[in-house]
Specification:
2 copies of one chain form a homodimer.
Chain A lengths: L13 H20 L3 H17 L1 H17 L4 H7 L3 H15 L8 E6 L5 E8 L2 E6 L4 H12 L3 E5 L5 H18 L6 E3 L6 H7 L7 E5 L2 H10 L12 E5 L5 H13 L8 E7 L5 H10 L3 E4 L1 H4 L5 E3 L13 E7 L1 H12 L4 E5 L3 H10 L4 E6 L16 E3 L7 E3 L5 E12 L3
Parallel strand pairs in A: 3-4, 3-6, 4-5, 7-8, 7-12, 8-11, 9-10, 9-11, 12-13
Antiparallel strand pairs in A: 1-2, 2-16, 14-15
């Protein structure tokens, strides 16, 4: 248990707090559900303007969090995620404005039919309702998640990390001011007011109050949420992604895709962690050398280790490791069947890719790999809502229900069936 | 705890049993995921033929269940649900053949885009994976659920009620023979081999083994499943459906819709349970009289009770009751705002309808009622996958995630993203 900041009382009844916030969120969600696109977009633009106008207060608050983090022993990586400056804050405001410009999913027709008796059926998108976001040190999530949730007509309940408490409160105050200006309910975006971790538990069991929980953060957070939640969760635990270099791969593409997929940014969930090289592929050493030159540690099975003194032997754990670092495991496989079997056994079903010039092999790989994203001759680093043209993403989901892969505005909606008749009764 | 039939040992380790069945189902699901439409349809036609060929064995088995049910004190309604005869069994086989003729959802493109860098993105439907069906006395569910699950490329794990154990085993044996003939894996449709209720608990916590649970049965079963399940559930708990007669309703439509929505079949989840009549509506007594003539007990609020000696006073519980019987509660409301408020407070968000000739009021009702199905000038009794043109339904869902309203083949699928490139790396 985390007792929160010293000035805060412990939370007497977390369930009561979340029930009360959930009831207010539901009321706000009802208003948001029928708000026009222009109204929602105007509110987001007002929120972005407030983020810019309140920059001094937000940066002051962030400085308090940074000071506490430095004295509290946060790692350099955590401090970097926590840090705001004018450029980053402008980026946050820009992102809110970008969401305001996205097409509104609410009200979109999914399909339409007329029954033989003349009844007209239309499936239309409607908001999910109330979305809970549980996140760690990045204060930008406060604005990003609120913007995406609101644009899809939902109320959001935000619970950020205690290390970013002052930053989150300052950002939330700016968002709330923007909502108030535009006449949308302030309860559309609520920040859990206490840092006590009991509030997280209460959110996770708030069935009927919160419609979906989206965790944003490291594997520890996501694992806890997936383990404890009774509310449905949209998330991915990890990205153990594979790049399979087929015997019929073009060597130039193989090298550039391997280096990009692994090394462009090693810390993102779309980074490749394991490369599988077909025994029939002509130039495996080029791939190893290119990775080593790019600064990557290469761990290989026996066949791969025999090719280069730069390769260290992989152990069994390497095939199930998400390094999120400049480390790659490489195995030799005997053709696409063995690659499919390895991927089926070890993939986290996030993003897997094949490099080949053989269309039939590519089609088979695309059909048989059971992952949220399956690629042919493209870098796994493209696994991202923005890169997919979705405008922004709230996260990437590897579960099978509701939404899979990059989740953006559409994933934050559900649908209802509208039936228009002229008095039809059922015989 | 139910110890099952006397000849059965108690289940030593329910989790191990379900884990083992789940692993076999996953293997089968992988084969089904890439099976062609014709292959799946042929398997279902073979299963239907086996159901017809094995009719004597199935009817014998059913006779054993009926005898046990009669001596065990099952109600007449339960015995009726349990009973098979040649006509009903033919109907079950017909239904399996009808599913075989439905359009295959697997492989259908949801959308397609080409990115500025030339990458092509396609979202295609793929099977959900492994579906668990937990049901009560109706043995037809064994065949219906297996057929829908298989046609959408899924493996199914079936757990029927102990009162139908022999019927379910005989039906399952016929299905398995049909699958075997067609070369699809027998593990594509497994029946939990023991009646010990611990197996149900093991299914409900089989995260990662079973992708979704669909309960089919009474409110007690659904409530238990929703309460205990850690696996996602598609279901509706009840159908507290409303018919709102607006001041601008056509009286002839109002009477025929009220009688049909309530009385056509009172025991189905799409039956209307509460009628709301606008104070401005001209002929409320006609509606009451027509319902009474049709054999319906009418419980009304003060204003309604004052209209007819046939109306008994409703109490507070009536507005939250799913009668599933020839009983209706009727309240007078002051216009569409009051109707919307009543529905928001009392609807189970299954199906709610308005009767009006005023297009603007109808549009508002359709937009603001937050239920899976919202109707204008049509009977709530149409809330059914078959009536919606979906061919067949596995159930109706009132949750907000994944699928809402009638769930048919599409609801038993998810999607994946296929990305086709020509060597693109991410800058």
């Amino acid at each position: 248990m985390n007792a929160g900041t010293p000035t805060e009382p412990r939370l007497a009844d977390a369930d009561a707090l979340i029930a009360e916030m959930g009831a207010r969120a539901r009321t706000a969600a009802k208003q948001l559900a029928t708000a026009t696109t222009e109204r929602k977009a105007a509110a987001l633009r007002a929120a972005a303007a407030q983020l810019r106008a309140q920059a001094p207060a937000i940066l002051d608050a962030n400085a308090r969090d940074m000071a506490a983090g430095e004295s509290g022993g946060l790692t350099a990586a955590m401090l970097d995620r926590l840090r705001l400056d004018e450029g980053r804050l402008n980026g946050i405001a820009d992102a809110v404005e970008a969401v305001a410009a996205l097409p509104d999913p609410v009200g979109a027709e999914i399909d339409r039919a007329v029954r033989p008796n003349g009844m007209e059926l239309v499936r239309v998108r409607v908001p999910l309702g109330v979305i809970g976001i549980i996140y760690e040190s990045r204060p930008n999530v406060t604005a990003d998640a609120a913007a995406l949730g609101l644009m899809a007509g939902n109320a959001v309940i935000l619970r950020g990390g205690s290390e970013a408490v002052h930053s989150n409160r300052a950002i939330h105050a700016a968002l709330a001011a923007g909502l108030a200006e535009s006449g949308l309910p302030a309860d559309a975006a609520q920040l859990v007011p206490v840092q006590d971790r009991a509030a997280v538990g209460a959110m996770l069991r708030a069935q009927g109050l919160i419609d979906i929980i989206i965790p944003r953060g490291g594997k520890g957070l996501v694992a806890r949420v997936q383990e404890e939640a009774r509310v449905p969760v949209l998330a991915h635990l990890d990205g153990i992604n594979h790049l399979y270099i087929d015997g019929a791969a073009d060597p130039a593409k193989a090298v550039s895709l391997a280096v990009n997929a692994k090394m462009r940014r090693t810390g993102i969930c779309g980074a490749t962690e394991t490369i599988l090289i077909d025994r029939a592929y002509s130039a495996p050493l080029e791939i190893i050398d290119a990775l080593v030159r790019a600064g990557c540690e290469v761990r290989g099975d026996k066949a791969i280790a025999a090719l280069s003194p730069h390769v260290t032997p992989a152990d069994a754990g390497d095939w199930d490791s998400e390094y999120l670092d400049a480390i790659v495991s490489i195995a030799e496989v005997n053709g696409v069947d063995a690659a499919l079997a390895h991927i089926d056994a070890h993939s986290s079903r996030h993003t897997d890719a094949i490099v080949t010039e053989d269309a039939a092999t590519a089609d088979r790989f695309l059909a048989e790999v059971d992952s949220a994203i399956v690629m042919h001759n493209a870098s796994t680093q493209f696994a991202d809502g923005g890169e997919f043209g979705l405008g922004a993403e709230i996260g990437i989901a590897t579960g099978r229900l509701h939404a899979r892969g990059p989740v953006a505005l559409e994933g934050l909606t559900t649908y209802k069936w509208l039936v228009r008749g002229t008095g039809q009764t059922r015989p």
